[in-house]
Amino acid sequence: TILFERKDAVARITLNRPDKLNSFTGGMLSELQAALAEVAADPGLRALVLAGSGRAFGAGQDLREAHAVDSPAAVGEHLARYYDPAMKKLAALEIPTLASVNGIAAGASCGLALGCDLIVAARSATFLMAFARIGLVPDGGSSYWLPRRVGLTRALGMTLLAEPVTAEQAERWGLIWECVDDDALASRTEALAQQLANGPTRAYALAKRAFHGSGTNSFEQQLALEAELQALAVGTADAREGIAAFLEKRTAKFSGR
Ligand code: LHQ
Question: Which of 74, 189, 238, 254 could connect to 70 by a Cys-Cys bridge, CB 3.0–4.6 Å?
Answer without folding.
Answer: 74
